[in-house]
Amino acid sequence: MCGIVGVIGREQAAPLLLDALRRLEYRGYDSAGIATLLDGGIARRRAEGKLGNLAAVLEAEPLPGTTGVGHTRWATHGAPTERNAHPHATARVAVVHNGIIENHAELRSELEAKGARFETETDTETFVRLLDSLLAEGMEPIPAFAAALKRVHGAFALGAVFAGHPRLLLGARQGAPLAVGFGEGEMFLGSDALALAPLTRRIAYLEEGDWVALTDDAARFFDAADTPVERPVVQTAVSGAVVGKGNYRHFMEKELHEHPAVLGDTLRQYLDPKTLAVRLPRLPFDPATVSRLTMTACGSAFLAAHVGRYWIEKLARIPVDADVASELRYRDPPLAEGGAAILVSQSGETADTMAALKLLKEGGQKILSIVNVPESTMARASDAALLTVAGPEIGVASTKAFTAQLAVLACLAVGFGRARGQLDATDEARLTHALLQVPSHAAEILEKDAQIRALAAEVAKARDVLFLGRGALYPIALEGALKLKEISYIHAEGYAAGEMKHGPIALIDKEVPVIALCPSGPLFEKTASNLQEAAARGGRVMAFTDAEGAAPLRRFAEHVIELPTVGAFSAPILHAIPVQLLAYHVAVLKGTDVDQPRNLAKSVTVE
Ligand code: G6P
Predict the structure, then answer these.
(1) I want to staple 419 with a disulfide (CB 3.0 to 4.6 A). Which of 101, 287, 413, 510 is the partner?
(2) Where are the beta strands (DSSP E) in 175-307?
(3) Which of the listed residues 27, 398, 406, 606 should we mutate to test ligand 1's pocket, taking the one with most ligand atoms within 8 A of CB?
């Protein structure tokens, strides 16, 4: 996926590019690099690993020049070494690239046959060599760039600077986002508005297939057929203020502690605390008559959608299909006439979710997205977008954005239930009242930090961990397992409690913690008996429950953590917090890089 940035500046480009890369590090952090133009030539600094390594290189060997490009990488083709780090360059051109050039092998053979000598295994270098060969034939940068673009297939965004053209920066977008920032006598290019926001608030987005030529104070946009086009300049609402960790050790810890505030802010958007009524903006479909909903997303956002499915089916009686976007996009499901889709995404940039959006739109579905970034590609491509008010989430593993997604979905489920006459005003008031208690319950749960840390000390010793839940807590068991895997690298599985005897029970021995989400309520007895089956086989049961569930579970469970007593409706939001906190503490004990776990990226903009 990677983050790209470019500048034609008035001051030194390298510090500014480095700063912008810090805001793009969520897109990848395997290696990073910067190239600037100086004295008719190109100079580069690159470093393997986190951005801090590049900063150290630049400190030791500063890079002059006012025009340049920068890149933070999440490796797709070629190992994350310095040699494979971007920018890729020849003496004539330097290129940064986000995405994948799918026909790179074919282009490489063609260029090698003509005598090109490749230095890396990257797909990006094929574009650089192609461009270089056109420049060598005497073409000017702009026509050469336009011609080279016609030869590459895939989903990508590109930025390029050219030796001997100190006030020229070219960019292209095909399947990966790219924004242009307008400064005073300066121009910027970046993967998103966040990268550019402190530099300028005046942003224009490239449309699919567009490319752009930036000079000192102008941007000329062209579509895929090279026809000049206008792209509106908007005043971005995104704040580029560098988000600090405050007194917290990690962004993830800080973000976990923001749960109460974020839940309160998000719920207030969609609930009226005075009337206890759900307050939804205009939707692109009528929930009273919609025939079917398709819900899709990736990673934790999909697990939020999965909970949403339980809620919407139960409260509104709308049939819902929920699938991960990477499957949905190729499954080619029959889509219902009069149907609609709900997409969930923190970043609003995830490639598979965007591809699913396209498929659903082409299939005649109205698109409602739940996103945390108002100007994201997904928000702009949807018929309507509902915002989570989570603020920037920096930790790669989603925490507060996930519970904020749940909060929006809970409001939607109640609103849909009312619209379809499945819920009356009393039901609505009861459910919204329960939701309005969630922020204060979230704060109570965070006070259990010491208990959860003690539990983490046990879990940290394990090689395998099982998370169990039933009903709408089943996706939260999956979230617990996903979070633990992501940041502590301990193998974990989430299972529907009733499925345990169909396989995972074979894993159970005294080494395997079985972490159960088991509050009192109609499903309590069922889950408790599954846990007893695990305990009877030597399994170490650790349970999150409430006051009523605690006593019976203590008879056989090794650890019981009591959470506030809430109804089944809001339980998934509240149970997400302790499982995330548990994963956090386990990761800290294991000494992993909590905010930037290995091999992951916050926003997955490649397939
Ligand atoms: C990555 C992140 C996850 C996130 C998923 C979907 O895998 O590490 O935390 O849930 O992408 O991202 P999105 O931005 O679409 O919510």
Answers:
(1) 287
(2) 179-182, 187-190, 202-205, 211-215, 218-222, 228-229, 234-235, 271-272, 277-278, 293-297
(3) 398
Q: What are phi and psi of 130, to 5 degrees?
A: -65, -50
User: Sorting pLDDT into bands at 50, 70 and 90, what band is 239?
Assistant: low
512 contacts 484 by C-beta, under 8 angstroms: no
Residue 241's pLDDT is: 57
Task: Read off the pLDDT of residues 380-417 as tens digits, 9 standing for 90 and up.
Answer: 899 999 999 998 888 889 999 999 999 999 999 999 99
Nearest CA to ligand 1 atom 2: 602
Contacts of 484 (CB under 8 A, 6+ apart): 459, 465, 467, 490, 492, 579, 582, 583, 586
Pocket test for ligand 1, best of 295, 603, 605 (most atoms within 8 A of CB): 603
State how far the Cα of 482 lies from the Cα of 559, in Å rounded to an integer. Answer: 21
Position 240 scores a pLDDT of: 58
Tell how far the Cα of 344 is from the centroid of ligand 1, in angstroms: 10
Residue from 232, 183, 188 nearest 207 by CA:
232
Residues whose beta carbon lies within 6 Å of some atom of ligand 1: 298-301, 345-347, 350, 353, 396-398, 600, 602-604
> Ligand 1 atom 15: the closest Cα is on which residue?
345
User: Which tens digits make up the pLDDT trace of 531-588?
Assistant: 998 898 888 999 999 999 999 999 999 999 999 999 999 999 999 999 999 999 999 9
Q: Measuring CA to CA, which residue among 173, 153, 158, 292 is closest to residue 231?
A: 173
371 beta partners: 345, 387
| pTM over the 0.85 mark | no
Greatest Cα-to-Cα distance within the chain, rounded to the nearest angstrom = 81
> In the predicted model, is pLDDT for residue 210 greater than 90?
yes
Give the pLDDT of residue 416: 98
Q: Is the pLDDT of residue 85 over 80?
A: yes
pLDDT of the residue at 238? 67
The neighbouring-strand residues paired with 174 are: 156
Q: Which domains does the chain have, with CATH numbers?
A: 3-235 (3.60.20.10), 252-436 (3.40.50.10490), 447-607 (3.40.50.10490)
Q: Is the pLDDT of residue 302 over 80?
A: yes
Give me ligand 1 centre to Cα 383, in Å: 22
Instruction: Report the SS3 class of residue 606.
Output: coil
Query: Which amino acids are annotated catalytic?
Result: 2, 602
Pocket residue to mutate for ligand 1, from 25, 194, 329, 347, most atoms within 8 A of Cβ = 347
CA separation for the pair 217, 452 (Å, rounded):
55
- Which is higher by pLDDT, 260 or 39? 260
Q: Is 49 helix (H, G, I), strand (E, B) or coil?
A: coil
Detail the DSSP E strand segments found in 74-191. Answer: 88-89, 93-101, 154-162, 169-174, 179-182, 187-190
Atom number, ligand 1, closest to the C-alpha of residue 353: 15
For 147-195, write each residue's pLDDT tens digit.
Answer: 999 999 988 899 999 999 999 999 999 988 899 999 999 999 999 888 8
Share the mean pLDDT of the chain: 93
